[in-house]
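[Automated response] Your request has been received and processed.

Submitted sequence:
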Amino acid sequence: MLFRSDAVTLSDVNLLLGTTTGTKIGTATSQKLAFYNSTPIIQPVNTVAINDVLVNLGLRASGGSSNFTTDIKLNNVGTGLFIKEGTNATMGTATLTAGTVTVSTTKVTANSRIYLTVNGGTLTNVGAVYISARSAGTSFTISSMNILDASDVAWVIVEPN
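Generated structure:
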């Protein structure tokens, strides 16, 4: 069946598809597709975030955050969780000076769970590390039980739901 370029309105129509071979929508990655009056796009490359794909296809409105209503499972050996570090990040490293360091990030909240681990650096006076202060939306302070501690501390912020 060939379709014309002018639009045809269909209402209350179900598409019946074959059950043996299946049906393709598009037969090449360069063919364009879109939904809900969005601009048609070619097949996105595998580095495009899934949320961007859904928005660009018109299957999800833009804005807001990507919510998952199920567990996120990494079912293949060798897969992992990758979190970008940088300004206002939820993960990073900091170096203690005289047993303390303040980490600036807008991502910290009053309810944040901040996980710490010593991650190298000067390891001669390592003490137990803990969060000694926080200012929601601004920063948190990592302190060591040893005032001479100059180790590097890795941290990650997780928010409870």
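Summary generated for your ticket: The two ends are 51 Å apart (CA to CA). The beta strands are 91-95, 100-104, 113-122, 129-135, 139-144, 150-158.
If you did not submit this request, please reply to this message.
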